[in-house]
Amino acid sequence: MTPPVVLAPMAGITDLPFRRVVARFGAGLVVSEMVASQEMAQEKPSVRARARAELGLGDARTAVQLAGREAYWMAEAARIAADGGAEIIDINMGCPAKKVVGGASGSALMREPDHALRLIEAVVGAVDVPVTLKTRLGWDDACRNAPDLARRAVGAGVAMVTIHGRTRCQFYKGAADWAAIADVVHAVPVPVLANGDIRSAADARAALLASGAAGVMIGRGAQGRPWLPAQVAAALQGLPLPRAPEGAALVDLVAAHYQDMLGFYGRDLGLRVARKHLGWYADAAGGTPALRRALQTATDPAQVLRLLPDALSPEPTVVAA
């Protein structure tokens, strides 16, 4: 079996323009940023936009990730996402953000496994497409209940489980515990993906070895490097790696992504949303801090495009005499 390599859902990051860029390099499955189920079902336009699934890129598939607290809204949002072209519905029970947890959603549901199961059952019953689940290891070290929740979720019809190798209370501190994911792998008969701190093919191999997982999900490692999931997938299969773009090819890629963001969000919001991506691209390219700042603070799209060739050039290395 070829280990799947999936782009993780990241709030405010894995929007449609970013997923398009990642998919162009050959990633087989990309996941939308987290979508609030009630707001989506109540037709809030900005929320519906997060769930758009039409990549238009051949074989690339899109999963839409839903978050929520109420079974009715989760089911309604799942139907809307599936009708809109989502090939998989992913349920978020792992987000550690205070705003999400404060609404008793995301990883807060790991403290209420009976209620979590009711949400899962509602989503599975609402759609014909596969339903998957993403969680953490548990709420904290005293409540590492991911294996039990995964077992119950699979019993309700979940087709795949992704585990971030930290508890909610760890947020993103420390190192992801890939070995702890093995408990979930042993608990369920469906594929389990390992997530957390996977920034290279070597990390992916180590995560697979430690966890016994069927594949990996890459999140923050793809920021500024949208080609990374395809490179990791190729490495795991023993295939030639897609080349990371450099020079003019990198400038063309970033310019196209930038213009796609402006078209998707509109000029003013697009300028603001693009700043973090431009910063990540500049960091990955080794550009100078001054040009990075100039790129992120420019208020004219034409100025941004003019700055790209210099901002994406590696900072010269000073060699001591």
Write a short abstract of this structure.
The chain has 321 residues and is an alpha/beta fold. It has helices spanning 16-24, 37-41, 45-50, 71-83, 98-102, 113-126, 146-155, 182-187, 201-211, 228-237, 247-265, 267-285, 289-297, 301-311; strands at residues 5-7, 29-31, 35-36, 61-67, 88-93, 131-136, 160-164, 192-195, 215-218. The protein has 14 helices and 9 strands.
Structure write-up:
- The protein has 321 residues and is α/β, with parallel strands linked by helices.
- It folds into two domains: 233 residues, Aldolase class I (TIM Barrel); 65 residues.
- The protein has 14 helices and nine strands.
- An eight-stranded parallel β-barrel has the order 1-2-4-5-6-7-8-9, surrounded by six helices.
- Strand 1, helix 1 and strand 2 form a beta-alpha-beta unit.
- The protein is globular, with a radius of gyration of 20 Å.
- The C terminus is likely disordered.
- GO terms for molecular function: flavin adenine dinucleotide binding; tRNA binding; tRNA dihydrouridine synthase activity.
- Its cofactor is FMN.
- Catalyzes the synthesis of 5,6-dihydrouridine (D), a modified base found in the D-loop of most tRNAs, via the reduction of the C5-C6 double bond in target uridines.
- Belongs to the dus family.
- InterPro entries: Aldolase_TIM, DUS-like_FMN-bd, DUS_fam, DusB-like, tRNA-dHydroUridine_Synthase_C, tRNA_hU_synthase_CS.
